[in-house]
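Renewal narrative, Specific Aim 1. Our central claim is that a sequence can be written position by position from structural information alone. The example that follows is taken directly from our test logs and has not been curated for this report. It begins with the structure tokens describing the chain, in the order in which they were read.
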């Protein structure tokens, strides 16, 4: 009886067998993929975020610095409006100040570029496209 319990065929796992407890089990199946090397997911996420955010910032600064608005760039208008508002520092900008328009437009473009950059970078590293 000990000889018959030493090796037992497992249905559904192809040619794999279960052997006695003191031997190493080697189970294989057509349903299982090949072994994958374990990676630290925090390290991978951190590296991809650093790369995509840096490229996203550069990707937004370049087009927003093109002088397309009456000979001025969006970045230039936004930064000059910051300087204008800092000239009367304790008082905040008025609601009719062009600072708010440049602030919203510049940051909206930045966040869209960062979002699409993150989607593209993650999609590329995870082979979506």
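The sequence written for that structure reads:
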């Amino acid at each position: 009886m000990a000889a018959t319990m030493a090796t037992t065929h497992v249905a559904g796992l192809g040619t794999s067998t279960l052997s006695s407890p003191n031997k190493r089990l080697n189970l294989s199946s057509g349903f299982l993929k090949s072994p994958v090397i374990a990676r630290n997911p925090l390290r991978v996420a951190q590296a991809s975020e650093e790369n995509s955010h840096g490229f996203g910032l550069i990707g937004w600064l370049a087009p927003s610095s093109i002088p397309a608005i009456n000979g001025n760039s969006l970045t230039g208008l936004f930064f000059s409006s910051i300087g204008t508002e800092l000239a009367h520092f304790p008082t905040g900008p008025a609601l009719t100040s062009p600072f708010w328009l440049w602030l919203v437009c510049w940051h909206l473009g930045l966040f869209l570029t960062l979002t699409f950059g993150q989607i593209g970078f993650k999609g590329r590293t995870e082979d979506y496209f």
